[in-house]
């Protein structure tokens, strides 16, 4: 069996329709054989589909379905007995087939960029039995591309940089455009590049999209940024092709093509001579059109008469040269300096050496201005010596200062008393001679550090300071003495010639050759029979016993005078008494007890026990005295005598009431109504001597009299009341008077009252009191049952 023929649809649908309607014979395409197919009752026959790849044009915009092709089987005799079925991608939804004729149509607009081809399967069935008369065959419908996509720069817009002064043809950046059309069919995806904006500075290669420099010597200092517009057009740039554009921002990067130059050939600065060391004198800057590392500078002083006085540094932030002072300026010594300063780039590009030397020179003149300076001493530190035996008024030394200014003003001297609080020294205001003002003692203060002030006579605010160190020379004015307070003991069983103490001496003086002491017993003790002294010739001495048999009962303490002489000139001596106690010692010679009274104490009590008993007795006596004193203080009356003035005393009572719920503390009604009979209240801590009677009630009298009498009564009561505060106290009463003439207007107890009060006058008070007049009036209409 033969398969149906397939017709090609070329680029335009009109041509395809024209070919179909013109009755042109369909082109028979190459055949693909199928396997043998058997039907029962018939002999085997060999059949085949006539088929090939179908093509359909994308982006068809017509109203009718687009004809794709035709499927046909040789079995089909045209009598409608054969039924064609289509399955696979897009079957029924995109592609439909006429089951009688085998014509295939596309019902939707197709886009090759979404899907380039569709794989479908076709089958011919017997309409009556629905059995296949041909094996199922697979074919492809390929979407034929048209130029419907413009090139696009997916990475745009671009930014790039190229060094300034670059030669022509230097590559800057490459741009790339993509076209979604089929690159294998026609020229729809073949792109060429061109430059729309940026000429004549830059160019672009049509095929590669590489942007290059087109002009030499482009100077960043003239223009540092360019905006380029690059176009990509398909169809190899032919008319009718689609195009896309992108922007490219090209920045010229800096190179060191500009040497530094000082704006001026010379500079002049004035500075005061009092400017301290390390102060800034001037700031210079050589202009350089370059930026970044290409504009970094180095400054140095290459010549001049101030090389040792000034130095120049570089401010790394501003690239300025900073001239500073290395030594103190002195107008009187030198009034001006001239410096030759060079500025040079730190990094030089050899390609641009032809543009000139990358350094520049300038001259700086520094004028030193004269200022009124304080006096200057001839020496920063004066060292003087004086003996501590010097009398008051002894000359120690002389200081000298002068005014460094041209006026050479006279100088007056004085001592800063903050450095000589004891006023040991004086100075002559005119000559600067320092003398002693008080006797000196080396042992108290060996060195005095004082400050001498020098003031200009014409301008006392200009003060110079000089420093003087006065060392006090020692004389032998202190006698030697024991080095410490010795506690010497001798055992009762000591043997003759036994050493019981080693003594030494000290001397506050400080002789140049050191101390040398000699020891001996004083004259009255030299021949005693108990102890002797042995000089060890090393500034120490030993105390020895002369006998044995010391007894505490006979003598418990011995006093031994020791005579000590120093080696000064003249020598000084002193007699020091050594106290020796007789003690009971153990077998090793260690003292156990040294009190003679221990022999006369009772056998059952020791000294410690007696001391404890006495301490207890004293404690009891103190407690008894405290108790008696407290009781006497409690019995003292709290009422003050009339002769004692208590107006300046403050009496404090730590007595608190019970709050609002305490209704028994005092009667508030007594403060508000004068007619309430008040009970006399007495103090709780003493028994009052006078009992006060209640006052009678006041009669109805004028208000001013009522208040005056109320205050008078309260005053007299406070004067005689022992419970009242002192004289200078503030008494507060909430007294409101005796009430209105009509007394109470309340109706709470009017019904139960038997009062014959007439309330007819309420009718005369106006409409506001009409209701009360009706209630309490005596008319017959006001009677209640």
TrEMBL record:
The keyword Glycoprotein applies. The chain crosses the membrane at residues 599-628. Residues 1-27 form the signal peptide. GO terms for molecular function: beta-catenin binding; cadherin binding; calcium ion binding. Pfam families: CADH_Y-type_LIR, Cadherin. The keyword Signal applies. Coiled coil: none annotated. Its main location: membrane. It comes from Podarcis muralis. It is found in: Cell membrane. PANTHER family: CADHERIN-23, CADHERIN-7. This is Cadherin 7. Keywords: Calcium, Cell adhesion, Cell membrane, Glycoprotein, Membrane, Metal-binding, Repeat, Signal, Transmembrane, Transmembrane helix. GO terms for cellular component: adherens junction; catenin complex. InterPro entries: Cadherin, Cadherin-like_dom, Cadherin-like_sf, Cadherin_CS, Cadherin_Y-type_LIR, Catenin-bd_sf. GO terms for biological process: adherens junction organization; calcium-dependent cell-cell adhesion via plasma membrane cell adhesion molecules; cell migration; cell morphogenesis; cell-cell adhesion mediated by cadherin; cell-cell junction assembly; homophilic cell adhesion via plasma membrane adhesion molecules. It is a single-pass type I membrane protein. It comes from the Eukaryota.
